User: What shape does this take?
Amino acid sequence: MTSSTPRRAAFQRVLSVIAGASADVGGDALAEGGRLKLSWLVQLHWWAILGQVMIVGLAELWTEFDLPIPHIMALLTAEVIGNLVLRSWARTAHVTEPMMATVMVLDAAVLTVLLDLTGGAANPYSTLYLVNVALAAVLLPGRWSWVLMAVSLLGFASLFIHEWFTGAAHHIRFGMSLEQVLVAHVRASWVALALAAIFIVYFVRRVALALADRERELQLARGQAQRREKLASLATLAAGAAHELSTPLSTIILVAKELQRNLGTTVSDEVARDLMLIREQVSRCREILDRMAGHAGEQVGEPLRAQPVERWVSAALDGLAGAARVVQEVAPGVDGVALVGPPRALADALRGLLKNALQASGPVAAVTLRLESTVAGRVRATVIDRGGGMSPEVLARVGEPFFTTKVPGEGMGLGLFLTRALAEQLGGELHITSSPERGTEARLELPAATAGERSTA
Assistant: This one.
């Protein structure tokens, strides 16, 4: 009973660490997604302001339209100031859907005022309303997209209403004939259509790709959180098993010893073998509990230390059956590189990959351990076996807890799951590739230690 107490305390510490590491992943990802959307809207504003300046400048220089330049410049200045404020606010704000919708409603209002100053309802650049509507369809949910469409239609309708009271194009004066005005209108319509098409295709595609990247990152974060939850469940299971089974297993061993001592030589060889088998199987049960305890969390409490790659590999090979068949391929630049993590857990992770490869390769085939230092500041250890490989169905389940293709007694199906969990907690990755009759390749990537971390090792 007393031996299970520190083990249970260790598991409680593991649970608290895991729970803290996986708190509120979804909320942070959603907030980051809102800031991403707003940052793209800010970029679109800059391009829109640049386009407005160019169009007004060209109209003033190459046509005989007399535009209200002071009013237009005041509006453009207000746009620049507003976008600077929006960019600063977007870096730290918790962006919600109503906030995004409000910004886009203001965009529609600004476009309406600009159109009113430069020709009113007859201005061909009114097609730019479509850019705002298209962005709303990409960045906002359905109800807000419909709201933005309605706001755009109302904005365009307000130009007609305003002209009904004040007259068409009341802010500008024409110095051209009617035929020249019509020709200029047709040309401006083509330019307006081209600008709207460019904005819609380019920016909407860029926003869609950026949002797809963010969705993939969110899915990855969710997967990591799920694995942490499974690790916590495993720790709970192991703690409960260790606590509940420790006493009865100890009792069974004690009773078996007493029976052997009391019966002495008066029992048959068969009974003696049965008593010995009981003791062996109980010892095996306790060994399994100890392995679950060690795998599931006792090593998580290790302090993080920097260690050279050579020491990490040496610790992984120490005591490994078949270590002589491991062929190391060390790429230039690995010497002197260190990585940071719990030393025993890191050694067990690499040892587990090598053990799997040795078992899959058979009793005589060699296993390759390739060590590299990547340009991204990582240490990559690739373990390549000479086994029969895995089918796509088996490969899809590799890394699930308690899933194993080994015969009973050779593994519990926890090694790859816990190796991946450890790598992700340290900021690394584990990738498994395999195909039938071509062997399996396990690639473990871990962040290399910085100069400061190496100096404190």
Residues 75 and 110 are 8 Å apart (CA to CA). Residues 178-263 form the longest helix (86 residues). The chain is about 65% helix and 10% strand. The beta strands are 65-66, 173-174, 305-308, 326-330, 338-341, 367-373, 378-384, 429-434, 440-447.
